[in-house]
Amino acid sequence: MKEIDLIPSTLKEAVEKLAELPGYGEKSARRFAVNLLDMPRGEALQIIKILFNMLDKIHPCSECGIYTENDICSVCSSDDRNRSVICVVEETFDAFAIERTGKFNGLYHVIGGRLSPLEGITADDLNIESLIKRVENHNVKEIILATNPTVEGEATASYIHNLLKDKNILISRIAYGLPFGAVLENADDFTLSKALEHKTLI
Ligand code: ZN
To answer: What's the pLDDT tens digit per position in 122-138?
Structure first.
């Protein structure tokens, strides 16, 4: 019996394209496409319109790489920020998270990911060269490496540290430790040993 391919070609195309998104895969892509099709058409089109609008208006800040609707983001264009300190993060939302704490008054630099040999992401794929240029051309005195505390985030921080260590600036790494509300006996050995290593005086 001749096998019938029931999947409409436009649906197939949508699933294939969505599955290319990092962290998606075919299953999530299929769910996304079918959820859209299952929705009232007006709502689904509204989602597409919002996404279109976002793509039309948002681009990386030409100085720090944070996604913004302006040429220069509101952090880079502010007169109230300490321009001698740059906090290096993997993604825009990491910068937003740090900003929410209200504890950082410097500038950001979004490198756009992390070194990952497994995914084929090398230093050339990240905004590292522009960071070095910022350090060289502006009066930067301190760099805080706030890449994620993962194997890749660590490797990325150490790579950037090596590039900057001879530039006569302060370089620090965000502290590791236990999340607030954690129970010691449930913490993994790595987190607990890092928390001890990076203990602070009170
Ligand atoms: Zn900016």
So the answer is: 999 999 999 999 999 99
